[in-house]
Amino acid sequence: IITYKRTDRFVKNTYTVKDKDGQPKMAGGKPVTAVAHGLVGELWVHGLMFETIERMDGYMHMKGGQTYYGSAIYWHEKYKSFVINPALGDTQEATKGNILMHPGSRPSHVQGCIAVGFFDANGLLTDSKYCFDVLRDQAGGASAPKEAWVKLTLVVEGHMPALSACKPWVYSA
Predict the structure, then answer these.
(1) Which residues contact 57 (CB under 8 A, 6 or more apart)?
(2) Contact, 169 vs 119, CB < 8 A?
């Protein structure tokens, strides 16, 4: 069982908006920028805690107070890392898409997904890929081949709050 707990804290970053081809959008000869907000949370497995960023700003998200049986952690070639895929159900995935927990360091790196790692003093998640290695081991995949999917149960505590109900995240050593 892996437990994801939402908080009432957020981090943010400014990023360059890109078009459908991955090129920076331009306005008046300058790149267009936007601000991404990420809800800070915790991911718990066997007493180990990892920090998380879940994209806010109206993106899709998992329902709070739910248990997602049949979730899995597996190798994802795009991220060159293990990822967690919550079992949202066929209807959810067909109509709204899928959510992954994957490597990332800023809110703009996730769009409806959740990044996992440890915050540094600047509010960036670090060691994200390493965290997924540890998560897979703790979920029972330590002796499984890299290609094997490891089934798990994901529990989500707390609902996605409005940004106005949250406080900025502050580093505390």
Answers:
(1) 36, 37, 163
(2) yes
Measured CA distances, 33 to 36, 59, 78, 99 (Å): 10, 18, 25, 25
Residue in this structure with the two tokens 């908080």, named with its chain if needed = 7
The partner residues of 167 in beta bridges, in order of sequence, read 9
Whether residue 56 has pLDDT greater than 70: yes
Q: What is the pLDDT of residues 8-55, one digit of tens each?
A: 999 999 999 999 898 999 999 999 999 999 999 999 999 999 999 999
DSSP secondary structure string, 100-125? -EE--SSGGG-SSSEEEEEE-TTS-E
| Single-letter amino acid, residue 61 | H
Q: What is the pLDDT of residues 76-109, one digit of tens each?
A: 999 999 999 998 765 544 445 578 899 999 999 9
CA pair distance 14, 166, nearest whole angstrom: 18
Average pLDDT, the chain: 91
**Side-chain half-sphere exposure of 45, counting CA atoms within 13 A:** 21
